[in-house]
Sequence to fold (64 residues):
Amino acid sequence: MKKMYLSNSDKVVGGVCGGIAEYFEIDSTLIRLITVIATVLTGFVAGIIIYIVAMLIVPKRSFF
Fold:
C-alpha cells in the first residue's frame, strides 16, 4: 500500500506539495501552482490553515 509523506528533498516550506507530487508521481511545480490558485480563490486564510494542518497531519518519512 502506497503512503504519502512530507518530502525531505523537494520542499519549499513544509514539504506538503512535494510529498503530494511524489505520491501522485507528478511535477511538484504543478502542485504548487494549483495550491496557490486554490488559496487565492478560496481566501488566503483558508488555504494557509489547510496547509498548516497538512504539515501537522502528514507524517515525515523515517529512514530507520
